[in-house]
């Protein structure tokens, strides 16, 4: 960055004094990377090593703080294999955003951004400014695996291409995870106690189940301490876990923006179906079927209630994570219910890709080598390697050709996940990779298979689809949406809570819709419609 | 305290009510502190369900084990002590002389200097230019980046100045000058020894600031071996806090598993970390209290 | 260094009549005293000051601060035109003043009480214990507030019920948010706040007390007429400084206690900016809002300082 103002000169003269004081500072080696390696590095288009001379690149990623990245087996072996040495400029995961912004704003970029979670806005912004380099030609030449993936899945290419036609980042591709958000789970003990063998299929039946949980003491402790349905407060999303699954009963796919079967984009908070959802929730609230602490309790508090076997229906990745105990097939997954106003419930499905996982900056002296490096992660072999570490540590093949494996005993009696976290960086961060069924072949427990079965029959077979594709807005559209949303989403969230708790009577619904319109609700739908039409016609 | 020979009834009543007031304050404050201690060694489920409300229940040391098994923790302690000691010394060297100068009514230009300093309390260039400055000074990834940018605080300078102004009698300075004492000698030989309380307060304010600080290390340090304690503890907490932040929005199964494996110890660690990071600094306070006793300085002035 | 004669002159009461140059010269060392602080503020505070201009620009990282395009008052307009602008301003002001009204006098009273008590284990314990909460992190603090006030299991709720009252919905009722916020803040910072007054109280002249005892003044009277006046300058300055920070209400704790039900009372300027920044790194917008805060704060500070200067001899300048 160039600064030529006068105060700066003053600062620089002060700098000489101060550098003396800062004697303990070491020079930042990451800044000089690449320059020493010279320009004559040859990058091979296939096979390993990738480069004929050692190359050093700097990489920035969120760090969960379990193991230094230098010491991870996966990254060490990757270095030997490829000839590319990485220097890590990681930031702790919870403050990664801050550091990422700073790095961009200050012009002091790393060569590679890994698992950076770049938003589409950031990709466009920094791409347009030349900070992130376009990747499409590199993909063509140096990423055989990723190229094949794009050819098989044209939607992926559509979703990672910015409006200016360039691809600025590689995505996380998720082929085996179909949930839009954590599912809801029924408490199996309650179902048994209430002798329910057919899960609710309509909102009325769901209501009846919740009512019975409340009144018939299914946990059998003689006290009416059951909480039929419970949610938690999170900074930005009260009730989101429930909302995600109940909106579908009224024909709505997503809480904010979704496209219907006729390619029309809707802004949910002003839809009629949303009103019906609020009405239903208000009914649950007023009869105390929805936990009255849902707007104020923490996740831990909800969990503690569930562990005391008090909650009838709740959201989590797996039921046992909230309920405690071992994985159990006794707690069935919630099958989306429908109301009278629709023929079948709307069910949202995971988009399958998250953009912004990997990007190369303009300071990178070896973009070709970097592309080859990351391309490995989109092959079965590389994805497996980065997911579970090298063979012989956490797992080994029982049938290599059929890709069947088994887990090995974990050393030192550690937990498997903790051990895995010391082997590979892909732990708890959105890393660029391809996740597919083959990776877990042979490693799945009966429980895993049961969950897959539940997902298949209750969601996928019932017509789950992606509510709104992952797509780009133009810079102007994005700016407008951001500025509309800052007030709009606050208003919608507040009003949702008020309607549900009865603080705002439904007589005021029309006034509410008017306000939403005045604040630009229709405009939000319009902008997204335009973006969707573009995406569709690509 | 002055010892009166006879205490009137009113005085006794006043003293008793003072004691009652302090006891009340003690009870109100100590309860949550005990709660934190107990929560750091109780089964998390009992803590979250409200079953543990005073004394530990279903004792477990897993939280502390997790903290102290982290190999970086001792290095973090060491770094923090180094940063705190050196940083605080620098703070005192910069702050005390400046506040004393500003407290002198015969110091020409003190209004201007005061304004010059106060202005920075309200207006700052923001994070980006500050980061660039540190970078251009070559301080990135060095101890200097943690100490130099916080070498003084306007607030503390003003507080110290007020102390000098209101407790150092003007006659003292005039007398010293008549005796032929230079300002430097006056400050070091007379003012400083008389001002033990404010030196203690400044050391405490600045020291605690350094001890608790993590943001500069987050921004400016790349090398983990230089991380102060607070950064190490934050790292330990990162996974624990993930569970709360992503509720209802799972990214992938792999993330969910990671979250779940950590969520168990989450609250344990959260409370344990508070204990680990604050006990040392709380232990320092009683030693500073002796500087706050009435009359420690005035006697020597008169003498 | 200097001749004895010249220094002797500096003690002369007729100081005011001397020329500016002489007055500067005779205290030349004081400028040296100032030098490190001045250098520090110049380099680390005035150096980056050019960054303020991004409040009037659309900051584009690759173009840098000086190279980004000017947009005038766009960001300010966006803030002022926000649907919630007046709510935000009101909430910020009311929480700050509420906090000041309760949180400012308490440390003074506590410090005066400490001062009455004989030095010993009891005093030491109370002092150390009340000081400890200052170190509890915001996350844990908010977590405890939520736990203690939980309608189903919170200890405070149970105590209120035990006393036969119906507890309010402290966590979700907008009418209670400010009280919960302020009281927990008072709990956390009162002990810490006494430190500065305790230091100031050490300046009380014991001879004054002895004289007062001879005159038959009660303990309470002595506290009121000897101890309190001693710390008035400190109190005044602290009040002025606090007034200058009215809009600087932090976002962390509020954010953690905020939920969609209490939002109308809990949304303040800093949480609004935080949310705006979450969507996109909006440096320019948050700098603009920060600048607005600063200008209002400065106006408050100047006003209060003026009042203080008129009514007492204690002021910032």
Give an overview in words.
The complex is a heterotrimer of chains A (538), B (303) and C (317). With 538 residues, chain A is an alpha/beta fold. Helices cover 41% and strands 11% of the residues of chain A. In chain A, the strands form five sheets. A six-stranded mixed β-sheet of chain A has the order 3-1-5-12-6-15. Chain A has a three-stranded mixed β-sheet with strand order 7-11-8, sandwiched between helices. In chain A, helix 5 crosses helix 14 (367-375) and helix 18 (475-501) packs across helix 20 (521-537). The longest helix of chain A is centred in the C-terminal third of the chain and has 27 residues, at 475-501. Chain B is mostly helical. Chain B folds into two domains: 14-60; 61-301, MetI-like (MetI-like fold), CATH 1.10.3720.10. In chain B, helix 4 packs across helix 8, helix 4 runs antiparallel to helix 11 and helix 13 runs antiparallel to helix 15. Helix content of chain C is 68%, strand content 0%. Chain C has helices at 4-10, 20-26, 28-46, 64-67, 74-80, 85-103, 105-116, 121-131, 138-148, 155-162, 174-201, 206-214, 219-243, 252-257, 263-266, 269-279, 283-311. Classes of the chains: A alpha/beta (538), B mainly alpha (303), C mainly alpha (317). At the B-C interface, helix 1, helix 2, helix 4, helix 5 and helix 6 of B face helix 1, helix 2, helix 3, helix 7 and helix 8 of C.
Looking at this protein, list some descriptive labels:
heterotrimer; B: 303 residues; mainly alpha; MetI-like fold; 16 helices; flat; C: 317 residues; Sugar ABC transporter permease (chain B); transmembrane helix (chain B)
What is the first-to-last residue Cα distance of chain B?
Answer: 19 Å
Q: What is the chains' assembly state?
A: heterotrimer
Number of helices, counting only DSSP H or I runs of 4 residues or more of chain C: 17
Task: Give a count of the beta strands of chain C, DSSP E runs of length 2 or more.
Answer: 0
Strand content of chain B: under 5%
Shape annotation of chain C = flat
**pLDDT under 50 segments of chain C (min length 5)?**
1-15
The level 1 CATH classification of the largest domain in chain B is Mainly Alpha
Mean pLDDT of chain C: 87
User: What is the number of helices of chain B?
Assistant: 16
